[in-house]
Design a protein that fits this description.
4-stranded antiparallel beta sheet, 14 helices
Length: 396
């Protein structure tokens, strides 16, 4: 029974314990393959390409295989796929979740994106929907023939992709869009194409495109229940606010999905939270205190809207950019205690921000993780896409 007498109370210490085990951060909970990491976390932020590899490497028992194994999963076996998902953001998902993600979050966004493209083209006096459909079919056929291709390569087969139109004419943000840029984005949200192998290294943001793996069309409500259940099993307990923020859905969709999976209410310091059915029992088995260096936009650091239980408010200004994107963070036993950056010479520099420090044991463990990270990143230089005050300072 919880403190109020009707639901179980789950405190901060227990939530941090769950986080260490279920997010694959505690030493004994680390994974052997990238697929295990992605399966446990449901989604890896893919807006910054380096984040995917750094998030995986932080959770592998042998981080030395991070790059090769993650590239195998993404581009060889295609057991992981980079595609648009929640909140109109690019993520990396296990391939068996593509249909669920597409139905639960992609369909509504896709309809808005295609309508917006057609509206912008019409305002600019560009060709109509029938013309766009013809170009789309031709581009997809070219992509099937090529296997993977950049927008420029596809335009060699379908020259109409190079055509341009003025966007927001007369506005302060007026610009020129190329058909290929907007169309490939729409096709990505619609689940017809996905990002393929990058042109450069694992830190490159220039991607080829590939035809999306085939998947069945699912009922929207059923897909939302599956996705929410998968996430809540890893990240629960979570508040309704957390769930609405992470999914990007309407609150009515969140509540319907909670009811569908039989989620159970628990009491948190923030108020009512939810766990999957049967997850109100004893906490996960205790683990030894652990340290981790997580990248900017890591799915754990960005996993909840209400973050005070693992990230003190006074630490946010140096660790977040002006748009709310988290930078590289240093963790000790379930909470953020500082940040890190890579210097030009490759050194991983870190700083504890917690008043009074974290003690010798924690500092030794953090230093070990910094050496572990520097060891597998090697000569590669990683600069976060969204830079934060502390990261800039440490990078020097």
């Amino acid at each position: 029974m919880g403190r109020s007498g009707w639901v179980r109370y789950i405190g901060v210490a227990e939530r941090r314990g769950r986080l260490g085990v279920r997010q694959r951060l505690a030493r004994g909970a680390r994974a052997g393959r990238p697929e295990e990491v992605a399966g446990s976390l449901v989604a890896l932020h893919g807006t910054d390409p380096a984040t995917v590899h750094l998030a995986v490497g932080a959770r592998l028992t042998d981080p030395g295989v991070t790059v090769a194994e993650t590239e195998r999963a993404l581009y060889g076996d295609r057991s992981l796929v980079r595609m648009h998902g929640m909140r109109h953001t690019v993520f990396v998902f296990p391939t068996d979740l593509t249909a669920v993600v597409h139905a639960s979050t992609g369909l509504a966004v896709a309809a808005r994106e295609r309508a917006a493209l057609l509206k912008d083209m019409a305002k600019a006096g560009a060709p109509d929907a029938a013309w766009l459909k013809e170009v789309e079919e031709s581009a997809l056929a070219a992509l099937v023939r090529r296997g993977q291709a950049t927008a420029a390569e596809l335009a060699e087969d379908e020259p109409r992709l190079r055509e341009q139109f003025v966007y927001a004419a007369g506005k302060s943000y007026e610009g020129v869009h190329t058909v290929s840029t907007r169309l490939l984005r729409v096709l990505g949200v619609e689940g017809k194409v996905v990002r393929g192998r990058p042109l450069g290294s694992w830190t490159s943001s220039q991607f080829r495109w590939a035809v999306a793996p085939p998947h069945p069309e699912l009922d929207v409500a059923e897909a939302q229940a599956v996705l929410l259940g998968r996430w809540l099993a890893v990240c629960g307990p979570a508040t309704e606010s957390d769930l609405k923020w992470w999914t990007g859905w309407k609150v009515t969709d969140v509540r319907r999905a909670l009811a569908s999976i039989g989620a159970q209410a628990v009491e948190l310091d923030e108020g009512t939270g939810y766990v999957v059915e049967g997850d109100v029992g004893p906490a996960d088995a205790p683990v030894e205190p652990w340290a981790a260096l997580l990248p900017g936009l890591d799915p754990t650091a960005m996993g909840w809207r209400d973050r005070d239980w693992y990230l003190a408010p006074e630490l946010r200004p140096p660790l977040f950019d002006g748009s709310g994107n988290v930078g590289p963070t240093v963790w000790w036993d379930g909470r953020v205690v500082g940040g890190w950056a890579q210097r030009p010479d490759g050194e991983i520099a870190w700083r504890v921000l917690v008043p009074g420090g974290v003690g010798r044991e924690a500092e030794a463990a953090i230093a070990e993780e910094a050496r572990r990270l520097q060891g597998w990143v090697g000569a590669t230089r990683v600069t976060p896409r969204f830079r934060t005050p502390l990261e800039r300072e440490l990078a020097g």
